[in-house]
Amino acid sequence: MKILQFTDIHLTADKSKAYEVDVWNNLDRALKLGLEWHPDLLVFSGDIAFKEGDPAIYRKFSRYLHDTIPEETRVAVLSGNHDDPALLASEFGLEKALRPDGLYYDSETDNAHLIFLDSTRKKLEKEQLDFLEEICKDIRHKPLIFIHHPPFFAGIPYMDENHAIENPGDLARAVSACSVRPAFFSGHYHTEKSYLTIEGDVFLTPSTFYQIDPVSRRFKLASYQFGFRLIEWDGKTLFTSVHMINP
Ligand SMILES: [Fe+2]
How far apart are CA 218 and CA 204, in angstroms? Predict the structure, then answer.
């Protein structure tokens, strides 16, 4: 299966620019380039809204997708720290996946177990960790786990010290029940990075908004290039690549 991951698209309600960046146009350029791969699934891994969850943003976004992507292409959305999981669930017909502690769900394909988590509140509560652990206990296929916040520290000082997930140890314990090695796909850090941990392989995907400097201890903008990730899993090999676009 072929998946495209877009993250931190930070859309505005009136299609205006966000901090001088035409976020709608960036998304459109990235998506149209990505569609050339004929993906089976598009994952939007959180921070769909510019600053905070807004029904008008989610409505415009879902209409835009409806008008832009082929009917057979599936879409999965995740909530990020700038989103509202309940509003997202209602716009994308995910009401059944909305629980008191977030919007999380899974689906199985013939060779993968797709798991979509919710780190809106920067922390995964016990209910969500139990959900993940239960899936891991009977996992048959490779877990491809999408979560807005990187599940573990990424060695990026400004983001690790100020904006990291609060309970990476709990998440590590939950996935240690998986007999098949998971691959995690995250955003939030506005940068591209891969790191291989005992718990699984982690891939950070750049934003379609702007990128953050991966070295500085203070917030520093790195670039206005934007990008997305292609993930191909054939049951034996996972191919993944990031594609960057000039503003
Ligand atoms: Fe974020």
Answer: 20
